[in-house]
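Order emerges. For instance:

***
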Amino acid sequence: MSLPLTTARAIMVPAAEAKLWDSTIIFCHGLGDSGAGWSFLAEAWGRKKEFSRTAFIFPHAPTIPITCNGGLRMPGWYDIIDFGSLTANEDENGIKSSYQTLQGIITEQVRDHNISSRRIILGGFSQGAVMSLFTGLTSEMSLGGIVALSSYLPIRNKLPNMITDANRKTPIFMGHGKVDPLIQHSWGSMSRDILLKQKCDVEWHEYDGLAHSADPGEIDDLEKWIVNCLKKDPVGGSKSEL
């Protein structure tokens, strides 16, 4: 595998067969982390034949004040007022700003690298997963899949009406620990139910004894799911219009 290319905006890991690059996985970190925190996915999957033509991008969130942490500045996709009530007083402007960042990365993959949007998987953990749900569901470009680990649906009083036809049927992988003390399991399952009512294609996984982190079994489940998503839209499919 090629060495990662670190920039101010993201860690980018080219495909092992870079000249034959035909798919991209974009994975967004949680609050206080960076793209490096999830780059192990490229190491774990990038050497396997199923991902030999897949590039990986791990974006960095901007450094912003986080209200619930006393205004301390840290990497965050949007502000959080109160960890006890993540959906109260949501930072809608911050969410929409980060949407523009992630949508810009997707657009670059299609426009500059000729990757079909249907061969782009957008996902994340915690805050990064929240952004992946929001960005993926509201994008006008049809994606290959959306991943949300330990997350919840943001702006849920508005988001159901913002889901685009382009991504209403996009496969969604949702994984959640049953004993998550930060983003409660009930918030994740409620978000799942809202999406199912919208006729979204959600595959739900929950893990006994898992707190606010990822589980090796969860990563294995996710790997299999992504491989299947990429098989659904083989190389040669039409490139989405910008």
User: Anything to note?
Assistant: The mean pLDDT is 91. The longest helix spans residues 92-113. The beta strands are 5-6, 10-13, 23-28, 54-59, 63-66, 72-75, 120-125, 145-149, 172-177, 202-207. The longest strand covers residues 23-28.
